[in-house]
Description:
binds ligand TNX
Amino acid sequence: MRKRVLSTILTAFLCTSSMLSQQSNRPLNLLPAPLHIVEQDGEFKLTHATTLHFKGNLSDKEYFQTEIEKLLGSRLKEVKRADKRGGVSIITDSSLDIPKEGYQLNIDKHGVSIKASDSDGVFWAIQTLFQLLPSEIYSGREVPEATLPHLIIEDSPRFAWRGFMLDVSRQFFPKEYIIKYIDWLSMHKMNKFHWHLSDDNGWRVEIKSYPHLTEKGAWRGENEVTPPAYGSGTGRYGGFYTQDDIREIVAYAKQRHVEVIPEIDLPGHSRSSVGAYPEMACTVEDTTISVNGEVKNLLCVAREENYQMLEAIVSEMAQLFPSQYFHAGGDEVNPSPWTKCKKCSALMESNNWSDPHQLQNHFTRRMESIVRKAGKRMIGWNEIIKGGELDSSTIVFAWQASKYGFESVRRGWDCVMMPGEYTYIDMQYTSNERGHNWAGAIELDKIYSYDPLAGETLSDEERQRVLGVQACLWAESLDKPARQVEYQSFPRLSALAEIGWSAQERREYSDFYRRLYGSHLNRLKSAGALFRLNPPKLNVVNGNIEVSSPYDLAEVRYTTDGTEPTVDSPLAPSSLKMEHFPRNYRFKAWYLDTPSPTIPLPGVDSLLLKPEVEVTTNMPERDRWGAALAADWKPNSYFRSTRPCAPGDWFNFQFAEPLSCSSIHVETGLSNISRYQLLDGVVEVSYDGDSFEEIAKITDGSVRIVPERAIQQLRIRVLAANYEPLLVIKDLRIEPLLSK
Ligand code: TNX
């Protein structure tokens, strides 16, 4: 038999036919890339007649059989001894010399053999095996038989912590949705689900001893204890998980080898709990606005009853979550209310503290002992290393930068790396897509390029303390469009999975990209996950538009009239002559029926008109965000009111000369996260400089208007409050008259 030692790096190449085929074929396109793989000629057929010899954790057997039954229509017949004529043998044996979570997988004419020294290893081997099967293994649709390629794989993870955090406070995700995520994590060999269960905008875990936390604290709205925010609008918005829900999710995750780590975010980001139990806050009339725009969002750290309450909460949660870890938050505390609070000030004085961070450290130390008493190890966001020492068992989550992780391991604490600029998948992919951007845009190659150990020389011991890596998905901008949460996640989580699992020397972006487009997107699709497809790349050279596809044979379609391309729009050739008004070109790629974002030609913003204009408003202005900023033609400076908008408010643009144009895009609010928008208003124009007529309604932040002739003024008029702390008005985007 011809044997070839192959690295997936050399062999994986894009093969569209395999992407679309029903059978698992080469290239294998395993993701995350395994440590060692030897591909061999030949195939083994998995059929109804294949037997199963299993030694190990019965939950793994049950999982395997259930999934195989969905694929083949029946379970494999179980036998006492491995069937040499062609069976599946799965053996867990702690005396085997196989690293933790690692496995050996052999497929040859005798069948499939999986060996591991622990049950995790068996489960990850099963995930590899599933990637070798037709993608129906993920959709649960039946196929008559499945072929598996002959091969030898030895595999084990680079890091023990391969995590994903989901914020369910800013937006609530129902139980069924969390369950889907658990499946999607486990298919990527990701093993930690960090569940951000409380924040300013909602407390999501039922606590029997403090029922108001969810009865009141889980709901936002006009007359609720937490004000509307992040697209929650005027109605009552929210939800929570009952203790039964939690037990169900935790058990489901356990069977999929995903550990669920709960977080309640304290002592900042506590608007929802303080709203439910106001006595938990300092007794000051506090108007401090937190980074996320909330007031009264801090617990009093000097109120002794708070610690009794937290002890009760933590001990209830400790029963629900078998994980050894408990995340108690600690991020973004603005200590100003503490400095105004008598009790907190007295605590500082009696300890001779001069820095409010010492108050936070006091809180952290108290939480450490509460968490320890409940039998758990505490985790906190990297701010907790500021105010003093910590218990040696505490784990630091480095989110602001890797350097905080490195500092932690040098000071003796374990850390998990999740620097915002690489692993915060709430960031937008590119500057014209939805998402946060405080840590920059994070395209797929950017997240993939992250190496948690790069940039610092660590001793062996320090390196061991870097437990791994995690992606975080904050939910402020996930309210729309539907399933934006998946769009933000995939395929960036696929990249993160590989950072966590694959040896650094096995990682190469173009190889990852080929495996992703060659097979893995198809797996995601079968598993029911929406993903963001890389858009085509465009270049304008000497009047020619050059179009490069995101992957070979991708369908790229385009329009020339500014409308959204559809599957019926013409296919774009790789080079086309520019024959229309540049701003009216739109391009879009498809992967099967999944579209990429729509891309305009680069550089066309420079064609927008910038006429002389005077702006006025009745709304109070603040120095740094005055009305004039809505007419400086700079996209990143704009008007911010100092209060929520109210009926009757107006904002006026008076043009120095009558303005002729083809259209005007009127935009309120921040486009990337759609906050501070006008949700009920009108746009009026004045052709004669005197009388106004309504030309459009604004119900969703922005609108494009097409004036009939030259206009002298444009006015935005507010009809209703926006239930936001303020209103943003951005520069008009004025399109010149069409030449074609
Ligand atoms: C920072 S990350 C936060 C969150 C926000 C996030 C938005 C962290 C510990 N705090 O409250 O949701 O930025 O990206």
